[in-house]
Structures
1.
Amino acid sequence: MRNTLLDMKKLYVSDKRSSKLLIVTSKKVGNAPYRNYLRRCTKIIMHEFATAFRGIHTAIFFKKQTNRVTFHQIRAMLCGKLQKKL
């Protein structure tokens, strides 16, 4: 699933109840505090949807066009992608 600000890919589906999340933010996205902010926001949002992603390993790639988006914008993008995926 592609977006102008991020890509989300389902890597692996397991029979187990555990899931893994990979968040990739390159240096082109911004400085270290901003990249960490993106990772923290994404982890919080994905934790809200933990039951929907049980057993699915997911990778999220932030693109370099991600210029100072807020938590609510990230949540809206991920919610849209999650609804399409489910």
2.
Amino acid sequence: MDGLAPDSKLGLTSVVENVSRISARSAPLTYVDNGVNMMAKVRTGKFEHFFNLYGDGKFYWRLKSPNGRVICQSEGYNRKADCLNGIRAVATVAGGARVVDLDG
């Protein structure tokens, strides 16, 4: 990560640290309906997913830290089920992911 700007390094480190605490085994996703969006809560933060009604008409998710800051967000999905699968994939796979500096 030496080639990254300090803010980028901090952001990547934050994602890795937060997502590493999320796993399908230790923190199953629970859904809370706030009337507009569904939120999948986990111990260290939460995944929110939503339908972009006034934009491109796709489903998105974002991972928020406990202080409410967006850590990362998804691409657009045509189906809600695919969006939920994206959340599960990140929660399951990213916890053990390495950070690789592609700039050398």
3.
Amino acid sequence: MSPLIEVPNIIIRDRAFKDNRIQQRDVEYLLTKLGASEDFSNLPTETVYTILSRLETADPRGLKAKNIYRKLIESKNKGMGKNSSKERSSQ
């Protein structure tokens, strides 16, 4: 799914995390500060459309599509698309 959505491969049970007392919430906080988004609500509408338009090629068997569409539905209630360049210019 790499060409579509990047998912960090973080093994929170790794010894380095345990030795340094780094917890899941610490990793999530850092990823958020770096600009990672857990859902689609913070992404510009254009980015969401790009993801959807590439979905057929990036996931031809549809293994990830169900999760992506579920996240889209969940994000709709959080104000998805507020960061669209078209929407910003009309404000």
4.
Amino acid sequence: MSVLDGPGEGTWSTFAMHVAKERDALAQELAELRASLVAKEPAKMLTLDEIRRRLQDRRLDAVALATGLHANSIARIRDATNLDPKYSTLAALSAYLEANQ
């Protein structure tokens, strides 16, 4: 065994093949998880005005932690300085606000 060999698998090409298989399996799992999340999106999403109204009494750091969004992004939506937020951002906020009324 030389320094160029992979970690107990023989050659680096064999090691690279294992890494590629693992990467492909994880990519497939991620695609399935994303598809399941899309299927679970709320049937009725809150309007932008309703999201803004419900965010008025919320701690932005708690909302950011729960949604995975940045607190500054949430503040810009709440304060109406972002007039055209992304759909995914609104969907995350709507789902959070519906679950945590």
